[in-house]
Amino acid sequence: MNTPQPAFTYDFAALTDRGRQRAHNEDSIAARPEFGLWAVADGMGGHAAGEVASGMIAEELASLGVPVSAQDQRARVIERIDRAHRRILDHAQRNDAGGAGSTVAALLLHEAELACVWAGDSRIYLLRDGALTRLTRDHSEVAMLVAAGRMTEEEARSSGRRNVITRAIGVGAAADPETVTGMAKDRDRFLVCSDGLTEHLDDAEIAALLGRSGPAASVASALLEEVLRRGARDNVSVIVVDCLALPAVAEDVE
Prior knowledge:
Layout: E1 8-17, E2 27-32, E3 37-44, H1 50-61, H2 70-95, E4 101-102, E5 104-110, E6 113-119, E7 123-128, E8 131-134, H3 141-147, H4 153-158, E9 178-183, E10 188-193, H5 195-198, H6 203-210, H7 216-229, E11 236-245, H8 247-253
Antiparallel strand pairs: 1-11, 2-3, 3-4, 3-5, 5-6, 6-9, 7-8, 7-10, 10-11
Helix pairs in contact: 1-2
GO molecular function, one term: protein serine/threonine phosphatase activity
InterPro entries: PP2C (IPR015655), PPM-type-like_dom_sf (IPR036457), PPM-type_phosphatase-like_dom (IPR001932)
Keywords: Hydrolase
């Protein structure tokens, strides 16, 4: 007999801010709990390019619809990222907006299954039982150097090349997002964020702030406020999602 998958409810908060130094916000966010989707897109190429590119990704993802399975959910997300990729390329060609593109980091939750779909250096973290895990790996030049042992994480965060990404939507012949999958548990807390947050906070600081008790809204606000307090050189987007087992399911598990 198959064991039924846990059913969850979600407490979440999604915030985005242009920061202290940028005139425009080129980040876009999508938060659609009815589809089990939360995503951050960080545009590049300037106001007429990056803001449009990230907005196209968020718009496409918001049309996801209710999936029938986790596999269907992932397929729909990848299809919409592909569609956004083609729209960004067309926009850049028609408007002479060279350099248009965007990162994307999408958290997908369907029953007990989770997936991360991303391209670029926006990130997804999981806080489980007090331990922080980075679920994504940056597609960036400095991340490659860190992986090769030629640069430390601290050096990467302060490098003048930290914003050079090696994969983005709307750049190149085809979208090429990476995907990882896993299983969600009761009381998991997820963070989806743009690099405007990780430029100012290291993983230990993120873990401390994300580990605060309270609703998702207060935690998301604390993360954003700390980045703003530190000068917020870039746009910053923060989505915090708490995964909570429905009471009947929790009782059955016990």
